[in-house]
Amino acid sequence: MAAAISRACLTGLATGLIAGGAWATEPPTGKRDGNQEGQLETVVVTASKRAEKVQDVPIPITAVTGEAVRDKNITTSSDIERLAPNLSAQSSGNTGGRSGKPRWFLRGIGTNDPNANQEGPLAIYVDEVVVGLQGDQSFPLFDLDRVEVLRGPQGTLWGKNNTGGAIHFVSRKPTFDTNGYTKLGVGDYGSRLTEAAVGGTLVPEKLAGRAAIYYEKGEGWAESVITGTTGPRFEDFNGRFQLLGNLTDNLDALLILNLRKLNTGNTPNYIVGATSVNNVTTPNPGGGISQGGTTYLPPYGDDPDNTSDFFSTLANSSNNWYGSTLKLNWYLGENTLTSITGLNKGNGDTWLNPQIPPGSTLDKTASDGDTSSDQFTQEIRLSSPTDRALSWIAGAYYYDLQADSATDTLRYRSGNTQEQFSVASWDQDAKSWALFGNVKYRFTDRAAVTLGLRQTWETKDITETTLTATDTAGNQNIVIIGPGGINSVRGSGVVAPQELSTDASWTKTTWDITPEYRFTDDILGYIRIATGFRSGGFNQSIVRGEIIETDPETLTDYEVGLKTSWLDGRLTANLSAFYYDIKDLQLNIQQQVPGTTITSTAGSSDGNVKGVELEVQALPLENWRLAASLGLLKSEYTDFVYTVGPTTLDASGNDFYRTPETSFRLDTDYRIRLGDFGQLLLGTDWSYRSHIYHNATVQDDPVQETGDYWNGNARISYFTPDNQLQLTGFVKNVTDQSNKVLSQIVNQRGVYPTGYVAPRTYGVQLTYNF
């Protein structure tokens, strides 16, 4: 029985109980399990589906402990861009990373595509289950064990194939020891936070459990000129419940249940940079919008920032998400058979009520949208022991994501004779099957080679509909779409509805080979060649009477790296250099030509990225921790010829969008020991990113660019002598930067909807650990 308990604990814990960023703040006790006083933390990850020290895994990884995530007030999934080189995850929703899908970019690989049905090239996992829809990849972080950022294609062992890499969020698992915490926080702009977790034995030697909750509310920092209320508003409730059981001496199980309820309100959105009369777009440095001879100048003129008063429709959005994961480990002699089953379901509703600025003749648009998704994944793998010259993993994977969306939109032109009502919907089913294997052979204690192979079969089918009704009879009544649906709609001209369906399938073999050599006990060198595959897709709306289809995207990564440790474990320095060769890169096209403005998945380009990354963690003094990373990138689109309407354009030679050539991160903390009075911990982290373009095709428009910038955060924590009580004060965006998150042309009137990062915020938090 003791052996069974040990195995169950390992299943829930050993893959990460002592895992974390080597630079992360350790608890005030001074060390964690497996560490010696005066050394950096031992780091264990599961990048290769086995528990290994991060310095022993021959791929570039950044790992961050749950304690570090909590202490640094990293509150949402997109916030982890503060912690890894060449990573960004900005969200255009401007609600602290809660609404709007994050624009994940890692080493230049990512997507700007607003199409909600598209799967990104960077895979996001929670407890080994992929989060398929990009709109579900923005979530709060609480009661975590660690976060792993795996750079480069993970096309062999990680379920849903991808080209850009994988990010794995690992929750803290149940143990047979009672422990937990309670956390309360308040901050400016109406911020309120409640977070708690508790776990321990339910049935001695048989069943352990853990429950965690997270609730946060915010009122926002910018005021609407229509309602006088502030935004962005949000209310976010999350729960996670886990059971870890020893079913037999050779079988254990882990069940995880998740739920989330998110409500958001008025979101700041700023219209910048163009006027439109009779559908002819001209630049307008004043930032006004002109129609019918009347110009509306927003209160912020042509130079808004993240706290400017904003003009917006009345907006409400609600999203619900439910997930369950069942992980089984069956110990078959020396081998282990693992099954991971994931079920996720989501639904959301967005309501926009039309408003117009006083005295203007601007169009006003109302919409009511509903989305839903059902995802099922199943992975089965058999793994051998690792203490052999030859070790291996073999498995199979299945993924099925069904998602649909329907949006009703009304466009009303005040003072004109036209009302227009349209309905658009899409319903997509994406399936993926794969067989995979991974073999590692150790020639000597110092030399080894790893080979991976995966065969993937993918299919997608989609049905799209559209209907448009136009009133040309001169009626001036306003048609309102409210929470109860459409109150009225009249149309003297109706375009016959369209319904189109299409499907496609793809097959791809991906592989990797990684020879490694340990020069000394503390220096590991490796060479890696790895391939990745991202399936094709479809535009989510009918464009010129057809559904646009994109081809699969492929990437080959050529990489060399060193992982080193120095000064008896007080310094680690990891270096990697890589070259990406990319074919059929899927790009969103946002471009204006006379008479046409379009956003679609029509773009396809080859390209390449060259890069160097350096990560350093150090313990210069017993109480001083320091971490830094530097990322250098050079990217270029090649053979980038595309069409918009009747016009053929060439963007070859452009830089990758959202890809800074230089990124730098510095993170440090210093502990002041107060003897019988406890301890103080002072910490700060800073990041630098050089200039980026927001658009793949237009790179001569300053509005669609963000210049280089620094962003910093600071915190101070007091710990009582028994380490049970922690009081933390924090400031985010210390220098109150107002960087653009998004600014792109998305409609025929040439308006740039522009979003910004959150302004400087501050707060205090009280945590009780037990």
TrEMBL record:
It is a multi-pass membrane protein. Residues 273-734 form the TonB-dependent receptor-like beta-barrel domain. Residues 362-374 have a biased composition (Polar residues). Keywords: Cell outer membrane, Ion transport, Iron, Iron transport, Membrane, Receptor, Signal, TonB box, Transmembrane, Transmembrane beta strand, Transport. Residues 54-166 form the TonB-dependent receptor plug domain. It is found in: Cell outer membrane. Its main location: membrane. Residues 1-24 form the signal peptide. A motif (TonB box) lies at residues 42-48. InterPro entries: Beta-barrel_TonB, Beta-barrel_TonB_sf, Plug_dom, TonB-dep_rcpt-like, TonB_box_CS. Residues 352-374 are annotated as: Disordered. Pfam families: Plug (PF07715), TonB_dep_Rec_b-barrel (PF00593). It comes from the Bacteria. Belongs to the TonB-dependent receptor family. This is TonB-dependent receptor.
